[in-house]
């Protein structure tokens, strides 16, 4: 008579549990990393629009909707909320904040920041978030 013993079954389940414990967090991290591209894409779009706005005006735009034509403050795929701050004639800060309640909320990178000088890559963590 052939079959699977209870001990063999328990060992197989334990092995599957260990593999799942390793694979699932890694998979979620990869998903967050790929969704981070949504925020970066939105910030680069803001940067291009700010450059164009500044070429035609004496200051940077301070309103995404009124000046730059954004219908809302969401990134293209909706994982981030985009905002402008510290806007002067020669500076601006654009921030992509993970949307509350979205799968990006727990992302280790948190807010992505871009200024008129480029992305905030002041730490190794921020460099890896921007893939620099």
Entry summary:
Helices cover 43% and strands 14% of the residues.
List the SSEs and their pairings.
Blueprint lengths: L5 H51 L23 E6 L7 E6 L13 E4 L2 E2 L4 H6 L3
Antiparallel strand pairs: 1-2, 2-3, 3-4
Instruction: Spell the H/E element sequence.
Output: HEEEEH
Spans with pLDDT under 50 lasting ≥5 residues? none
Q: In percent, how much strand structure appears in the residues? A: 5-15%
Q: What integer is the average pLDDT?
A: 92
User: How many strands, which pairing sense, and closed or not: the largest β-sheet?
Assistant: 4 strands, antiparallel
Distance between the termini: 61 Å
Characterise the protein shown here.
β1 (80-85) and β2 form a beta hairpin. The radius of gyration is 22 Å and the shape is elongated. The longest helix has 51 residues, at 6-56. The chain is built from two helices and four strands, in the order αββββα. It has helices at residues 6-56, 124-129; strands spanning 80-85, 93-98, 112-115, 118-119. A four-stranded antiparallel sheet has the order 1-2-3-4, covered by helices on one side. It has one domain. With 132 residues, it is an alpha+beta fold.
Question: Main traits of this protein?
Answer:
2 helices, alpha+beta, 132 residues, four-stranded antiparallel beta sheet
């Amino acid at each position: 008579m052939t079959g699977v013993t209870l001990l063999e079954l328990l060992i197989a389940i334990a092995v599957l549990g260990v593999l799942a414990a390793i694979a699932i967090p890694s998979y979620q991290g990869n998903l967050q990393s790929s969704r981070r591209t949504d925020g970066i894409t939105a910030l680069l779009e803001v940067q291009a629009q700010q450059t164009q706005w500044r070429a035609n005006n004496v200051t940077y735009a301070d309103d995404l909707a009124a000046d730059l034509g954004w219908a809302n403050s969401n990134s293209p795929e909706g994982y981030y909320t985009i905002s402008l701050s510290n806007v002067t004639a020669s500076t601006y800060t654009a921030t992509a904040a993970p949307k509350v309640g979205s799968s990006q909320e727990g992302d280790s990178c948190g807010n992505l920041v871009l200024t008129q000088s480029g992305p905030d890559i002041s730490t190794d963590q921020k460099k890896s978030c921007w893939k620099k």
